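pls design
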């Protein structure tokens, strides 16, 4: 049954990135499904928090950061009773990635105030920070970065653990 999910992904990857050969496509898909932490340098919480602070537009002061780099921005904190509870509800709903669902879509944003990228996707105000230290391929493209960001969000969605809360009030 699992192979059924790889076929659409391989088709999508080959259609979006035609210059890669089939071997590279297969390696990209299977590498993405492996835990990235064992293959690259994982940031500590302090480094992650500092990079996310630089990645977020300063006009957004209310946000919650999860262990694997996914964060949720709240536009109007006055409408939220408990920011931690609301973040957990949103993460459980929009964090996990299911093949063929809207959580599989993503966009990769290149950062200017810090190194790395933000991966956006399904779930309003939900983003995932990806550090260059987490990427094995020095010339990684947006697809590879996006797949890693999506897998990090999936980890946060399945085992949500808040490591930092930034509040304006």
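designed seq:
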């Amino acid at each position: 049954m699992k192979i059924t999910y790889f076929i659409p992904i391989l088709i999508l990857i080959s259609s979006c990135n035609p210059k890669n050969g089939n071997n590279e496509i297969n390696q990209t898909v299977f590498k993405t499904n492996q835990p990235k932490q064992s293959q690259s340098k994982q940031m500590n919480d302090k480094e992650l928090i500092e990079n996310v602070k630089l990645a977020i537009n300063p006009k957004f002061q209310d946000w919650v950061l999860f262990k694997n780099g996914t964060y949720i921005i709240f536009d109007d904190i006055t409408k939220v009773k408990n920011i931690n509870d609301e973040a957990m509800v949103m993460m459980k709903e929009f964090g996990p990635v299911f093949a063929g669902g809207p959580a599989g879509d993503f966009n990769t944003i290149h950062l200017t105030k810090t190194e790395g990228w933000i991966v956006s996707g399904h779930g309003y105000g939900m983003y995932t920070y990806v550090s260059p230290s987490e990427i094995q391929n020095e010339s990684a493209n947006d697809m590879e970065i996006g797949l890693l960001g999506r897998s990090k969000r999936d980890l946060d969605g399945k085992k949500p653990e808040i490591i930092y809360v930034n509040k304006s009030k």
